[in-house]
Amino acid sequence: MVGINDVPKHPVEILKTDLESERPRALLPHSLSPDNTKNKYKEVSPVSVKPYKSKVSNQLSRAKYDNKMVAMLNDSLSVTLDNIKKIELGQLHPQTEFMQRPCLVSKWVDYSNKHGFAYQLSTGSIGVLFTEGHTVLKFHEGNDIYLIQPDETSGWKVDQFEREQIPNSLANEMQVIDFFDKYMTAHLSDVSNGTSNNQSGGIFLRRYTRDDNGIMFELSNGSYQFNFKDHHKIVISDYGYNITHITPNKEIETLPLEYVLKNQNFYETPDDYFTVKFNFMKHALREKLSI
């Protein structure tokens, strides 16, 4: 067993050709049509990032955890979609005094063919969703580390450690997360300017989905972030009550969804394709719920 302060026998080595990070290509607006999303999603299982590589025995042994996690994911999706529908019908109104800028995924690197999916939150915390299904989250301030694992009862079980108390069994994970921390700091820009008003606590990435139009993040606080390939990001937060737009110039506007729908766009940071994208987002959420 390798200790956290020992020299590993096989140090983390990452090739640039294996990395896939957020470097968007040009957006084709017509490709955002909801009718064009069928069978285009590449879902990343919350238990196994690459389930087709797992042995059948491992899949069966993890099925009970997967079922609970999927149930929780579906509950969040159902509440969000129901709230969006009620807001569209004028049956639900915002409480603006509780509106906050959401916690965002500000950087990401997809290395799921070997280690996992690394990301940085707008609070500065770094997380890696490992291919085995667990997440390690390192906080920007302090030495706390969260180990988030599949759990039969609660869906996800969270264990908290101080840096000096990390078990030897997590030595490799710590090497990986430290590497990605340095890599993202050196090579990737921060789309959110590092600002977030939410108390992020133990917010982590539950699941991500990639398709031809971009990437969708499902966070543990009920936020859904869509990064489109034209460099625009839109976040549905607070289970559908609020919506945030991040422009390619890193301008951020957070408003109650009701206000944006009445205006048919954001006020200070309008997006020419907002209506198309919003319809796409709703369709994507419904499609995730039907899986």
Strand and helix layout:
Elements: E1 20-21, E2 42-43, H1 56-88, E3 105-111, E4 116-121, E5 126-130, E6 135-138, E7 144-151, E8 155-162, H2 171-187, E9 205-211, E10 214-219, E11 224-228, E12 233-237, E13 242-246, E14 252-256, H3 257-263, H4 274-290
Antiparallel strand pairs: 1-3, 2-9, 3-4, 4-5, 5-6, 6-7, 7-8, 9-10, 10-11, 11-12, 12-13, 13-14
Helix pairs in contact: 1-4
Write up this protein.
It is a single chain. With 291 residues, the chain is α+β, with helices and mostly antiparallel strands. It has a single domain (44-290), classed as Arylsulfatase, C-terminal domain, CATH 3.30.1120. It is built from four helices and 14 strands. A seven-stranded antiparallel β-sheet has the order 1-3-4-5-6-7-8. A seven-stranded antiparallel β-sheet has the order 2-9-10-11-12-13-14. Strand 7 and strand 8 (155-162) form a beta hairpin. It is globular. The protein starts with 19 loop residues before the first strand and ends with a helix. Residues 1-12 and 23-57 have low confidence and may be disordered.
In short:
One of its GO terms (cellular component) is nucleus. This protein has 291 residues and is an alpha+beta fold. The chain has helices at 56-88, 171-187, 257-263, 274-290, and strands spanning 20-21, 42-43, 105-111, 116-121, 126-130, 135-138, 144-151, 155-162, 205-211, 214-219, 224-228, 233-237, 242-246, 252-256.
